[in-house]
Design brief:
Helices cover 36% and strands 21% of the residues. The protein is α/β, with parallel strands linked by helices. The strands form two sheets. Strands 6-5-4-7-8-11-10 form a seven-stranded mixed sheet, with helices on both faces. A four-stranded antiparallel sheet has the order 1-2-3-9. Bound molecules: zinc ion.
Length: 336
């Protein structure tokens, strides 16, 4: 029976990242969908769902996605709730963007949600523009934050080519049906010396490659994520779309979240707390000062954990920073 499935898959597919035809089943089952198949390119390691779920992406992200995928699991949250989620990753995204802007910069965020990152960036740049399929979020950003927003794809906005110094898209590319084509169509909207910044979950996630927690894999793979990248495959698809740049990893979730997964074998309910810099600190003043010493020690432990993972490219998130590829010139945009 397994041979039959393999044959079907192999005949139908080429790898988007490397063009190889060695696509084989990798696992069956993603979050809330035990029957969904994930396949892998044996040549380069790119993974993707097969077949893709059969819904219209724009309609799905406008109406259904936010009902089930939130910082707090299984809750219905409003645009204002999402705007107020000041999680650690948001800060990390902001700091990454701030590394590449100046007061004259025009910045576009694709998948801007309720505009939290753009509103924090706004005082530092000339103009921010947001795109999000979710009309409630886009209207929130436009009405409450006075950010120019669109609910269409970039090429349907009427915005001209060579418009942006920075285009960023955090946790978008894994949702896109044809990421190479999508990146290629975005490319002309960057200025010649513009910077593209992407973030996406790391397939070489530490809980799966170092600690081997199968329950985490069952949770981590999910229907809206059509593609699963590691450092190599993210670089391959960006190169294929006409960019050159660099992939690094970041560790967003704290060490307490690792321990929670190891012992509870399930996610924490609150993703904001799971990313906090201070996961297990003592909150009461204690005689003898052990609170201060212990908190210092715990923060150091969390910091060491994150730094070691990042140093060895095992952080839970991939960041890509690149520019339009020009023959003979490697991307070497320096952080400001
Ligand atoms: Zn491949």
């Amino acid at each position: 029976m397994q041979v039959t499935i393999k044959t079907e898959v192999t005949k139908a597919l080429l790898c988007m990242a490397c063009g190889a035809d060695r696509i084989e089943p990798f696992r069956t089952g993603v979050r809330n969908r035990p029957d969904q198949k994930v396949v892998e390119c044996k040549a380069c390691g790119l993974q993707f769902l097969h077949p893709f779920p059969s819904y219209d992406l724009k309609e799905y992200y406008d109406s259904k996605y936010r009902g089930t995928h939130n910082c707090e699991m299984d809750t219905k949250r409003t645009s204002e709730d999402r705007f107020n989620d000041r999680h650690y990753e948001l800060q990390d995204n902001l700091e990454t963007v701030l590394g590449y802007v100046c007061p004259e910069s025009r910045v576009l965020e694709i998948g801007c949600a309720a505009g939290a990152m753009l509103s924090m960036l706004q005082p530092h740049v000339k103009e921010v523009v947001g795109l999000d399929y979710n009309s409630e979020d886009a209207h929130y950003a436009a009405d409450k934050l006075d950010i120019a927003t669109y609910t269409t794809d970039l090429w349907e906005t009427g915005i001209g080519h060579n418009s942006f110094d920075v285009i960023c898209a955090f946790h978008v590319i894994e949702h896109v049906e044809d990421p190479v084509r999508w990146l290629y169509k975005i490319r002309p909207y960057l200025k010649n010396d513009g910077v593209i910044i992407l973030a996406t979950p790391n397939l070489d996630h530490p809980y799966m490659t170092l600690w081997d927690i199968p329950e985490f894999a069952d949770f981590w793979y999910r229907e809206p994520h059509l593609y699963y990248f590691n450092m190599d495959t993210l670089e391959k698809i960006t190169n294929a779309a006409g960019y050159s740049g660099e992939v690094t990893t970041a560790q967003i979730y704290n060490i307490k979240n690792l321990f929670h997964w190891m012992y509870a074998r399930e996610p924490q309910k609150d993703a904001v707390a799971a990313q906090s810099r201070a996961p297990v600190l003592i909150n009461r003043p204690t005689s003898g000062g052990i609170d201060v010493l212990m908190n210092h020690s715990l923060l150091n432990m969390d910091s060491d954990y994150r730094n070691l993972l990042m140093k060895h490219s095992r952080g839970d998130i991939l960041y890509y920073v690149g520019g339009r590829y020009v023959r003979g010139a490697d991307f070497k945009k320096q952080k400001r």
